[in-house]
Each structure stands twice: as C-alpha cells, then as structure tokens.
Design goal:
Helix content: 10-25%
Number of helices: 4
Largest sheet: 9 strands, mixed
CATH topology of the largest domain: Alpha-Beta Plaits
Number of strands: 9
Radius of gyration: 17 Å
CATH class of the largest domain: Alpha Beta
Number of domains: 2
C-alpha cells in the first residue's frame, strides 16, 4: 500500500479538513490530496505549509508540542521595536497561557505576492513582516502573541516545519517530499519510535 506524505500550500479561506461545511472551502477541493489527512491544522484565515499524510506516526511526531520547530511569517500592523521583539522571544502572556520562548525577527525587505482577497490596508498605518519560529502550537498562537505586544497580525503564513519548506510552491499546489526531507523524517521518526514505510 502506498503511503501518503505530501507538502501542500493551503490557500487563504480553506479549512484544514475534508468534512464538508456549508458555504466553506475544504481540502475536498484538491483531489491530489486524497488518501491522506491533514497533519495538524492551519486556521481558515491562515495560509501556507500543511502536511498531508496517512501515517499515524507522522501525525503524532509533527503535532506533538515541543518536538518540531515550525516557522511562520506574519504581516503585522506598525513596526515592532526591540522591546516588542524581546517579549516575543522571551514568552508573552496570551490570555490563558504564556508562550514558550520563540525566535522572532523583522523581515524589513521581504516582498510577498498579494493574497486573494488582499488584506485591508490603512494608509496611515505601516505594516511589516515578522518571522517567528515556535515549538508549540496553541490555538491561534501567533496571532495572539503579536496582538499581545501591540502588533495585530493581518496575514499569516506557515513557511516551514523542521527542514520542510514551503519555498515557491503555489497556493493550492502540492508536492512530494524531497529526498533530504524524507531522510530527515525517517531519522526523527526512528528516534521517536516511528518507522518509515515505503
């Protein structure tokens, strides 16, 4: 039996599930993804890298808190200063939890293709992209973290899970793992008790 492990660029406005929901777009819209399940999730209003697999150990490995670093890019309102970035790096209170330490950096020169539909723009409020690398994945965590330091997220993409990168994969497209990505998943899977099945 062929095992499914795919890298998918989830577009904005698509639910990370196959179950139909009236008036909503779901993964059923993308036939190439059939045979697997979403590994973790991205919110409907978030975009980017979503892994698809039918292997239970891959699901467990990639969604267990603290195991695998995930990289996000967030377009936020206004320009965070050094103090705001330091709060993100040290951990910030987000209502019912304090975020674990994270890596947070400005991407001042980053140019991203426009989203469909585009984000709302306010002429007198600048925006900038941040890159955040986390090892936990609480509900709407990046949005809650940036809001807590005074910089609401307008657009959010996941661009990396461990060494697996979104790169230039177009929204709605998917691909198989590269050989280095397969080797990495096989290695960490064996370390955590999983076995690569070909």
């Amino acid at each position: 039996m062929q095992r499914v492990i795919l890298v998918f660029h989830k577009p904005y406005g698509v639910l990370s599930q196959y179950k139909p929901v009236a008036g909503k777009r779901t993964l059923l819209e993308f036939p190439a993804l059939s045979g697997g399940k979403a590994v973790g999730r991205l919110d409907e209003d978030s975009e980017g890298l979503l892994m698809i697999s039918d292997l239970a150990w891959v699901q467990t490995l990639l969604t267990r808190p603290g195991q695998i670093e995930k990289c996000y890019r967030a377009q936020v309102e206004r320009i965070p200063d050094a103090a705001a970035l330091q709060r993100l790096r040290q951990g910030v209170r987000c209502g019912d939890f304090v975020s674990a330490p994270a890596r947070a950096n400005l991407l001042a020169d980053l140019q991203m293709a426009e989203r469909e539909p585009p984000i709302r723009h306010r002429l007198n409020v600048p925006t900038v992209w941040l890159e955040l690398q986390l090892r936990e994945g609480k509900n709407r965590q990046v949005r809650r973290m940036t809001a807590a330091v005074g910089h609401p997220t307008l657009r959010l993409l996941r661009v990396g899970i461990g060494p697996v990168q979104l790169a230039d994969l177009a929204p709605g497209a998917c691909r198989e793992l590269t050989r280095p990505e397969r080797d990495w998943l096989n290695r960490v899977g064996k370390q955590k008790g999983g076995l690569w099945q070909k």
